[in-house]
Design goal:
With 346 residues, this protein is α/β, with parallel strands linked by helices. The chain is built from eight helices and 13 strands. Strands 1, 2, 3, 4, 5, 6, 7, 8, 9, 10, 11, 12 and 13 form a 13-stranded mixed beta sheet that branches. 40% of the residues are buried.
Length: 346
């Protein structure tokens, strides 16, 4: 069982004093629908000061192999698939941060298409539509988001885009696919009033200087690098420069001769990040806490341990206790509500 903020227990050495962090809860969010929760927030609130529910590898509810591993080996999907809900289902459940991983490729006519994938090289898996098993493409995700925003104009969707595999140079073609007036692509974190009814680009891929600025620049966000560093929250773009964001994203992949567990992920990574974010000054950059983790074998089993503890932890926090985007595997409406009710609408 993971360490939890149980105030009936004696505080252990080095454990955060949650009695100084937990604040009284209010009933402000009672009756608020998950699909429209941002309507309760004031227009002047910056996105960096909103607790956003997010999904990791958002398009991976359905995948099929394009590498050497046969898609008939069903167990591999337990390591590749990180969500059970479609993009539209996630948005209706309250998700407002999507994590898209793209593979740019040229089709037979020479046109470039951007396919949603998870993994690279021989272990690249293509995200698909469940009914047809056809590849899920960026434009189709954009259409789903546009439909949702048309029906829920008070909301905004932050979309993080990372090139997962393929030619870096082809990513310069992606902005040409953005629907005009639907995207916020400035480099400054906006207030909510500027982006209601829009998608906000968080760019995790490089672009030529001639195309900059383009989106909130988190191109230096490197989770694999964070796995090789001590536990902590690290600045992006890099140490020594003014950070665009502070991010905890150590997914702690399996290493030989180690006994890493989900407990380590929570105790050493997730919970300390929440403590640091609680202590942030009023004027802070983006803060992102990723609870996703993998052993390259069985993500759903790990989630069965992580997500209930995360929800319990969030449920005892008061509104306004910290501002961060919380990015998780296998999100649902219960997890989303535990996150967005941390926001103080006043």
């Amino acid at each position: 069982m993971l360490n939890q903020p149980d105030q009936t227990q004696t505080k252990k050495v080095g454990e955060p004093d949650w009695t100084q962090i937990i604040k009284p809860k209010k009933d402000t969010w009672n009756g608020v629908e998950e699909a429209d929760w941002m309507a309760r927030l004031p227009d002047e609130r910056p996105l960096s000061h909103i607790c956003l529910p997010g999904s990791h590898d958002s398009a991976t509810a359905h995948t099929q192999s394009t590498g050497v591993v046969s898609s008939a080996v069903s167990w591999i999907c337990r390591a590749i698939n990180c969500q059970s809900l479609s993009i539209s289902e996630q948005l209706n459940a309250g998700v407002r941060f999507l994590d898209l991983r793209l593979y740019p490729e040229k089709d037979g006519s020479g046109s470039i298409q951007f396919v949603c994938v998870h993994g690279a090289g021989k272990l690249r898996y293509t995200c698909t539509w469940p009914e047809s098993e056809q590849a899920l493409k960026f434009e189709e995700v954009q259409d789903e988001c546009r439909t949702f925003l048309r029906e829920h104009p008070t909301e905004t969707i932050v979309i993080s885009i990372k090139k997962e595999d393929g030619d870096d140079n082809l990513m310069a073609e992606l902005p040409k696919l953005f629907v005009p007036d639907l995207w916020y692509t400035d480099s400054v974190v906006p207030a909510l009033s500027m982006v209601r009814g829009k998608m906000v680009l968080v760019r995790r891929f490089a672009l030529p200087d001639r195309l900059l600025p383009c989106g909130i620049d988190l191109s230096a966000w490197d989770a694999s690098r964070d796995n090789d560093r001590p536990a902590g929250v690290f600045p992006v773009p890099k140490e020594g420069a003014e950070p665009t964001a502070w991010i905890q994203d150590d997914f702690q992949y399996w290493r030989p001769f180690t006994n890493w567990t989900v407990t380590d992920k929570w105790v050493q990574r997730v919970e300390p990040a929440f403590v640091q974010f609680n202590e942030s000054e009023a004027d802070h950059p983006l803060q992102i806490n990723c609870t996703s983790c993998t052993n390259f074998m069985d993500v759903p089993t790990l989630v069965q341990t992580m997500n209930p503890v995360l929800i319990q932890f969030l449920d005892v926090q008061g509104m306004g206790c910290f501002d961060c985007w919380i990015v998780s595997d296998y999100v649902d409406a219960t997890l989303c509500r535990a996150v967005f009710t941390l926001n103080d609408p006043n």
